[in-house]
Amino acid sequence: MLIKEIKELKNLVKSWKKEGFSIGFVPTMGALHEGHQSLIKKAVEENDKVIVSVFVNPTQFGPNEDYDSYPRDIKKDLELCMMVGANVVFNPEPNEMYFNNRSTSISVSKLTSVLCGAKRPGHFDGVCLVVSKLLNIVTPDKAYFGQKDAQQVAVIKRMVRDLNIDVDIIACPIIREEDGLAKSSRNTYLSVEERKAASVLSRSLNIAKNLLNKGERSASKIKEIMMEEINKEPLAKIDYVEIVDNESLENVEIIEKNILIPIAVYIGKTRLIDNFIFEIYTY
Ligand code: PAF
To answer: What is the percentage of the chain residues whose pLDDT exceeds 70?
Structure first.
């Protein structure tokens, strides 16, 4: 079922809650692929009812970013959602979501001043604003996010904790193409040649994984080797390659606990992100 109005969705949620149904929520910007479908499948497994939002959120795009050209195909998105068992696709217009004279903002500090946050000023304020609004509208028991946007997961977990929002945030594994490229709606921007070149992101992360598994613990050494690999690819331009604490996102030099290796690389004009979490087990 497609719902475009907040009021209609709220009424439906109310009636479900009266009947004691648990609600899973998957927020998306549409252009759905197997990555999103894996989140929806998990939500379907773990909840009685599942709502997917499809909303290209204007407040999280910078002035020179791809808001206008971001791929939109609600018919196909609806089909993909229904195929994996979602009950409702919520697809509001921007003027349904935002008042023209809105004056509230949500800003998670520190975590958003690094990595993608440093490169895309205001981006996470927009993400936090729309996610908090969606969580207020849907009031789900659990909300599902892709681990591909690792910083987004960390920021949303922090916001939900700080604002006492009553929801479990579930991070789901990255889904990859056969050559390792993380599935992303923005992969559709890549030309054939760029698409081939894009496998350099996961290749560099695999190199890091092997080095870590062999016992390398110097972050700068690992980053240097990863950057060397990426720089071999003529169509690739590094935006960042970092090794950070998985929760605080602060830089790490000697790897002694669980870390996140997030990377952002331009392939031609398309900026792609990927990451890898390395867990150190202490027995
Ligand atoms: O990850 C996304 O697609 C978006 O940032 C989200 C969480 C749907 C908010 O617009």
So the answer is: 99
Which residues, other chains included, contact 266 with Cβ-Cβ below 8 Å and sequence gap of 6+? 236, 237, 238, 239, 272
Q: What pLDDT was estimated at residue 281? A: 74
Does residue 177 lie within any of the structural domains? no
- Say if residue 190's pLDDT is above 80: yes
130 Cβ inside 6 Å of ligand 1: yes
| Alpha carbons 234 and 133: distance in angstroms, whole number | 42
Has residue 240 been placed in a domain? yes
Residue ranges at the known binding site: 29-36, 60, 146-149, 152, 175, 183-186
Characterize the bridge pairing of strands 236-241 and 168-172: unpaired
- Residue with the nearest Cα to atom 1 of ligand 1? 28
Residue 283: per-residue pLDDT: 62
Catalytic residues: 36
User: Best substitution site from 127, 129, 136, 174 to test ligand 1's pocket, by max atoms within 8 Å of Cβ?
Assistant: 127
Supply the pLDDT for residue 274: 98
Between the CA of 183 and the centroid of ligand 1 the distance, in Å, is 15
Nearest to 94 by CA among 136, 54, 139, 135: 54
pLDDT in tens, 146-162: 999 999 999 999 999 99
Q: Taking the model in full, what pTM does it have?
A: 0.96
Q: Is residue 180 part of a domain?
A: no
**Structural domains counted in the chain:** 2
